[in-house]
Amino acid sequence: MKCEIAQDQIVLMGYGELPDELVDGLEQHLSGCEDCRREMNALRAMDEYLALVPVLEPSPNLLAQSRMRLDEELDLIPAHGFLTRLRVNFYAWMGHLQSAPALATLLLGVGFLGGNFVHRYQVAHAGSINPGTTIYRPTEGVIANVTGIVQTPNSELVQVHYNRVVPETVEGSLDEPRIRELLVMGMKPAATNGVRRDAVSLLTDECKAEHNCNGQTDGKGIRAQLLVALRYDKDAGVRMKALEGLQRYVGLDHQVRDAIAETLAHDVDPQVRTMAIALLEPVRSDSSVRQVLRTVSIQDENPFIRTASYNALQSAGDIQ
């Protein structure tokens, strides 16, 4: 830093108008320049002396004359050179860096909001693309059981062999085989009532929408699993949902017809049996169905079920 610039900054510092970013540079210059340091000490001594003198208010005429002379002197000052302007701009740029964290935070917030808006726009205008199956593993699992324990002879070192159960979450379309397989497993007796109801409800909706609900000879199809749930599930809500999913196949699949007739004859829940009577309407002309209706209308202990079966036979024109 040149002494001319340093002396100008000394004056600004004396009046408390020197920018903070220029203070360090001035102090470094003062530490190595004896002349500027004497100028600084003289200014401070003058300030200390003036602090002891009472402050008098200047007259308005003096202020006006001083401003005029100041303007004239400022007009006579030559323009700064290129290096001087470059130096001043550099120090100003360094000062702006102090606000960089706040600016970065602002840019980060704007970027987040913009990205969120673009994502919502893409989702809203995206076509029905199959996202595929996604598997989530939220935890490392729990220990299921201990399979073996081996101790090192003459020591306290022990090896314990165990199996760990790792919970997973699968996300995908109802039409994907993996999702359907898990829903079928959710209908097993080991699952809770809520899980079985949710699983059979989703598979029932698939059958009602004619989404690959054909029967399979290996017993692994959705229709076969609904038949198993209708016959053996202990939850009446699950059995009613299974009936709802099998409704459209009562006239197409003799296994479905026989299972619904068996439900009418042996199910313990009156609501399930009443629903079975309604579902058998398309096949009341079948001899096996008429025999079940006739037996129930005569021998059943529930008077409502007997009356409903009797009315079903009467509507079929087979009362004897």
How would you describe this protein?
By secondary structure, the chain is mainly alpha-helical. It folds into four domains: 1-51, no CATH class; 136-165, no CATH class; 171-248, no CATH class; 250-320, no CATH class. Helix content is 62%, strand content 8%. The protein has 14 helices and four strands. The protein has a two-stranded antiparallel ribbon with strand order 1-4. It has a two-stranded antiparallel sheet with strand order 2-3. 18% of the residues are buried.
Q: Mind sketching the topology for me?
A:
Blueprint: H1 3-14, H2 20-32, H3 34-52, H4 60-76, H5 82-97, H6 100-125, E1 134-136, E2 142-151, E3 158-165, E4 169-171, H7 177-186, H8 193-208, H9 222-232, H10 236-246, H11 254-266, H12 270-279, H13 287-299, H14 303-315
